[in-house]
Design goal:
Helix content is 37%, strand content 22%. By secondary structure, it is of the alpha/beta class.
Length: 462
């Protein structure tokens, strides 16, 4: 190649549209690169979501993988965590999932997983990019190409998840589920029913257009889940993203909770059971997680955003549990990726152990007020906006602590903080602010958002 393209990997995997970044030509080369990365005669699991263009990327990958000498077990359409539980059980060399995950319908992605179910680290992603850009891959001779076979992984998925839960503590419960017409449609409901849980489901059919809500579950688009949870008199409700890893919960009154709230319950549970001393928390997660960890003798270790950063930090620090505020919960005894089915079952376990409804458990937490704003920002401006935001915010304020990661977090002695973070998956720049004082949060978010907008405008004209 005559020049090196832009960075391939984002926060989690490779994402784009088939008209630009994720072209069939590039995806077949990614398949060849993956064959070189995993090694000739490796065997991997391959799956996709139900978006029409995922099929295009899928077959392009297959072409490159087979030509590079890799054998494929074709899982078809499947939730990402299902593939990873199968990978763990069957002990193959890795897995690749083609999915847009929580992003809008037009986006498609490629997630690459190692044998231990974690995604490629930053170092490994750089190595992968170097192989691709330098064309250090090989098309095998006709008699050394790989083979492809279909595989049904549902039973492995269901049995693996259910084996991690005390089923006597969850049976008889009532759960409302909203898979959002994503890849976990039907499957999530069936796993819960296998645990003798009564389930009511909405948006429970595969639909690549996501007609009822977009695939990123959050309080503002889970109003139907809120209504049905309360109306069904369910113990909890759960809203899921496009590939089945994110889980945003509703309490029995229909109140939708961000992942750091329920994640704090998981932290407390892990510490009470003496499963861990260290817990990994992403840089954009509420300080409520630090309160929960400290109260029960744990230590918070901050990581970058996304499963690759969380998993790497968990392994490095011997942490049993990791969390991202978007509803991703990782347990080291399961897979190094989120799974809505396992999170739902483990939350029900906690309700049984504590003997209290979810609303009561979280009412015992101190109150933090967080606001999050996503601002449209071209990818080419993200780096300069982050640098200038850091410089100008530091001039205006004197934070108690600056925490750099895949963004810049300013932390203050009153437990308030501001985070400037360019998205690694979308053309947006994210700003977060949190405080125990609602008005201070509003002040911080307004000033930080105004600063980012002004910087984008300033540098767009250069």
């Amino acid at each position: 190649m005559s020049h090196k393209p832009e960075k391939l990997f984002g926060t989690s995997g490779i994402r784009g549209t088939i008209k630009s970044k994720m072209t069939p030509s590039l995806c077949s080369k990614i398949g060849l690169t993956a064959a070189s990365f995993f090694g000739e005669d490796s065997t991997i699991l391959l799956a996709r979501d139900h978006r029409p263009h995922a099929t295009v990327v899928y077959h392009s990958l297959i072409s490159g993988l087979l030509a590079g000498g890799v054998n494929i077990l074709d899982c078809g359409i499947a939730p990402t965590p299902a593939v990873l539980f199968a990978l763990k059980k069957l002990k193959y060399d890795g897995a690749i999932v083609v999915t847009g995950s929580h992003t809008p319908s037009e986006i498609v992605g490629i997630l690459i997983f190692k044998e231990d179910t974690s995604e490629l680290s930053k170092t490994e992603s750089k190595e992968f990019e170097d192989i691709l850009y330098e064309e250090r891959y090989e098309i095998m001779q006709w008699n050394k190409t790989g083979y492809i076979e279909p595989i049904d992984i549902f039973d492995i998925y269901a049995e693996s998840v259910l084996s991690l839960v005390n089923l006597q503590k969850v049976e008889g419960r009532k759960v409302a589920v909203d898979p959002g017409n994503g890849a976990s449609s039907v499957i999530l409901r069936e796993i819960l029913e296998l645990a003798n849980i009564r389930v009511v489901a909405i948006n429970d059919t595969l639909d690549p257009h996501f007609p009822h809500r977009d695939p990123f579950p959050r309080p503002d688009n889970l109003k139907d889940l809120s209504t049905i949870t309360k109306g069904f008199q369910a113990d909890i409700g759960v809203g899921v993203d496009g590939d089945g890893d994110r889980a945003i919960f509703a309490d029995e009154n229909g109140n939708i909770l961000w992942g750091d709230i329920t994640g704090s319950l998981f932290i407390i549970d892990a510490l009470k059971r003496k499963k861990t001393k260290n817990v990994v928390v992403t840089i954009n997660t509420s300080a409520i997680t630090e309160w929960a960890a400290k109260k029960f003798g744990g230590t918070v270790i901050y990581s970058g955003v996304g499963p690759p950063a969380i998993a790497e930090s968990m392994k490095k620090n011997n942490a049993y549990f990791g969390i991202e505020e978007s509803g991703k919960y990782l347990w080291s005894d399961a897979i190094y990726y989120g799974d809505a089915a396992l999170a739902t079952l483990r939350l029900l376990e906690i309700l049984d152990i504590e003997g209290k409804p979810l609303s009561k458990l979280i009412s015992e937490f101190p109150k933090f007020y967080m606001e999050k704003v996503a601002i449209s920002c071209p990818d080419k401006l993200k780096d300069i906006v982050l640098v200038r935001a850091f410089e100008e915010w530091q001039e205006r304020h004197k934070p108690a602590k600056v925490l750099p990661s895949d963004g810049i977090k300013f932390m203050y002695k009153d437990s308030s903080w501001v985070l400037f973070r360019p998205s690694g998956t979308e053309p947006v720049f994210r700003v977060f602010a949190e405080s125990m004082d609602k008005e201070r949060t509003k002040e911080l978010i307004k000033e930080s958002v105004d600063l980012v907008k002004e910087l984008i405008k300033r540098h767009s004209t250069e």
